[in-house]
Amino acid sequence: MTTTHFDGVSITTKANVYFDGKCVSHGFTLADGTKKSVGVILPATLTFNTGAPEIMECVGGSCDYKLDGSDVWVQSSEGGKFNVPGNAKFQIRVTEGFEAYHYICHFG
Fold it and tell me: From CA 67, how far away is CA 60, in angstroms rounded?
């Protein structure tokens, strides 16, 4: 099931803009202190680095992703999730002509 909203959050209003605007996100904190971000990735192939483990949840559009050490691209679409280890790299590819990839990043 796709997450559609969060109650009782503190949000950072200034966007994090990466890769010349191809990825834009906003960080927020739940009442229990859990940190997350929501964002959108426009058509591109981007490489990200993680500190902590992450779960990437697709809430709209789709992407292909490739985890560090793999040669296989895997599709993630609305309702899909994938896990990224901490201190790792991964790639996300959003194809031109398709809807942007809308996501929630669950940290830790």
Answer: 21
